[in-house]
């Protein structure tokens, strides 16, 4: 009798284990369907910025520092605002898709274009008066002048963010973002020969590198327009509509909370680059620190793929009203991302110093990068955790809570700690980076606790209320803007 009971229990455990493996496999396929195209597209898009930095670094060391300053401060500042405000599109489109309100997704996309275009235009003085701003914050005159010149060349580039970021989120929410991966790969593939042509063959130097960057970035946007407008999104894109101008205020509110959340995260690194500019031998410090941050940011593109997957999976399941599926998806997401993080942690430890020579021929910069490689490795490891949890928050519409967490952990803990270690000890740039890790570690622990304590059944109710508030019938979206005008 006991043997029979033990046999039944063993069989039941085996069935549960097999069922769990199947559930993990099924969830992993859903995650990678979103994450892999997201990783490829972000990796390639950011890769164009890295390639441009590499070309400029082999032209002139002062311009390398100037480019690093603009890319790490001005572009990151503006990109942070636009990426954050665009993540409202990610929340709304993801939940609308899960709830079957497909026609609303095109309206949310158009609303995000309106909000982002106005926002970016307001922010243009950051690039127009780049040199004056850098001098105002105390950067060396030669670096500030170079940064001011490069800032002007970045203007046509940054306008691509308005469309590329939002369309990617629009397509990602409906599991159609593989096209973005292909377009991004094509963008990266043509960027290298374009840079070589303009910088070396036509001998255009810095201007040539920046022209190549803008041209390749708009190739991606044009490809996205063709896909969306060409009939490949028949249920979610119904054409331009005056409905896009309705309910803009609540969308702006969600966009602002999203913007603050992401901005506080992206600006964190920018402030640390600024702090590096006040250390001894600022040119070497800024260049080395920027190289490490860009390597970290390039790997972070993988984490952003998982951030997008977390947002889509959480938003879709909340839209469907399935709180249990949300919890399980978070567990699988974190497990997968951490395994990848450990792999890159080891990789950065092994190839620390060699990374620098991809960007510069200066041995002083390379030695400083080598000295920071251990800290870079730990940053890469943390990248595998907190972006996933940020994606969970975006999917649930909890951006405002994470914004407060980011403010406290980064600006009240990380930056003061980095400044303290960087200026009052002999650690300098290394001390600034230790402070950065301290802030990220605190944020990671807080987000883990917050995710664990979240009542997902309650979040299902809130998602349903939000979708009901914004809902418009399909026939209300067929009015064309041109007919109204």
The low-confidence runs, each spanning 5 or more residues with pLDDT under 50, are 12-16, 475-485
In oligomeric terms, what are we looking at?
Answer: single chain
The whole-angstrom Rg is 23 Å
Instruction: Work out the strand percent.
Output: under 5%
Question: Element order, helices and strands?
Answer: HHHHHHHHHHHHHHHHHHH
Shape: globular
What does this structure look like?
It is a single chain. The chain has 485 residues and is mainly α. It has one domain (35-471). 83% of the residues lie in helices and 0% in strands. It has 19 helices and no strands. It has helices at residues 2-57, 61-98, 103-123, 125-128, 130-136, 141-158, 160-173, 178-201, 205-229, 248-276, 282-320, 323-350, 363-371, 373-382, 386-396, 399-424, 429-453, 456-470, 481-484. Helix 12 packs across helix 18. Mean pLDDT is 82; it is low at 12-16 and 475-485.
Task: Write a brief structural summary.
By secondary structure, the protein is mainly α. It has helices spanning 2-57, 61-98, 103-123, 125-128, 130-136, 141-158, 160-173, 178-201, 205-229, 248-276, 282-320, 323-350, 363-371, 373-382, 386-396, 399-424, 429-453, 456-470, 481-484.
Structure keywords:
single chain, 485 residues, mainly alpha, 19 helices, 83% helix, disordered C terminus
